[in-house]
Design a protein that fits this description.
Length: 264
């Protein structure tokens, strides 16, 4: 099976994101089933969470946020695109679609295990532990977002600025998880990362990917453009994510005042 997947994408598929997804899923299942005796809904999987509507909302949210960030960078003169060779050292052609598929099979499981670990299980158990306390959702988001940012300190080029923006992104994903369920947060996370890697051809959280045909180049100070960390590491991304967080908070408030149910 693993060999078939590698042959399908044209190169060996790294085991790491899949092993992390399997381990995280197993750990969450054991904790929910035997220790907490709680349903999967606690981790952000209520009935209908995998609906096309929820996934569509997530994909649209992640795509819109990244495209707004890109537009801001281009308008500020902080991002341009340049042509690169379409061949590797052996002279073999590496097409856009091939690279896009390879990126997808790596980023999809990576985004899912991160969402399950932070926005799913961690956020869920914090909210559950605090019970009816009014601050429960706020604390749950904060714990999940801070933990999410700290984990990314291991990435190349990470620092205080990039970690803060990752935490802000985590906060937005936590709000989306509350509104639509964890699968929507995963879809937004995946859309954001995949567009950077497969469409813009820029680094994703400091990690480089193949750039067949062209690549995005970031200019100016790193605090503005993100520099080697990628577009998500600069002021433009922070402003866009801040706007998403404010919009999501408004929707959350509107839902609570109208009697809408909150996802644990």
């Amino acid at each position: 099976m693993w060999g078939a997947l590698s042959r399908a994408v044209g190169e060996p598929v790294p085991l790491y994101p899949y092993s992390m997804l399997a381990a995280t899923t197993a750990a969450c299942w054991i904790a929910l089933r035997f220790q907490l005796e709680a349903p999967w809904a606690l981790a952000g999987f209520p009935a209908g969470a995998w609906s096309l509507r929820s996934l569509g909302v997530g994909l649209a949210t992640g795509t819109a946020a990244l495209l707004l960030t890109t537009l801001g960078l281009v308008l500020a003169g902080a991002m341009t695109f340049e042509s690169v060779s379409m061949t590797d050292g052996s002279g073999m052609m590496d097409g856009w679609w091939d690279t896009a598929l390879r990126v997808l099979v790596v980023l999809a499981p990576a985004a899912l295990w991160e969402e399950l670990a932070f926005r799913g299980f961690l956020q869920g158990i914090v909210v559950e532990a605090l019970g009816a306390a009014r601050a429960a959702p706020l604390v749950g988001r904060a714990v999940a977002s801070v933990s999410f940012g700290v984990v990314h300190l291991a990435n190349p080029g990470a620092g205080v600025r990039t970690t803060g923006i990752v935490m802000l992104a985590g906060w937005c994903l936590s709000l989306l998880r509350e509104h639509q369920g964890l699968p929507a947060a995963w879809a937004a996370h995946l859309a954001w990362n995949w567009i950077m890697a497969a469409v813009l051809h820029v680094a994703v959280s400091g990690l480089p990917f193949a750039t067949p045909g062209y690549r995005g180049v970031l200019h100016g100070p790193d605090w503005l453009s993100g520099g080697g960390w990628g577009p998500e590491g600069g002021l433009v991304a922070a402003l866009v994510l801040g706007g998403v967080a404010l919009w999501s908070a408004r929707e959350s408030l509107r839902s609570s005042t109208s009697g809408g149910a909150r996802l644990a």
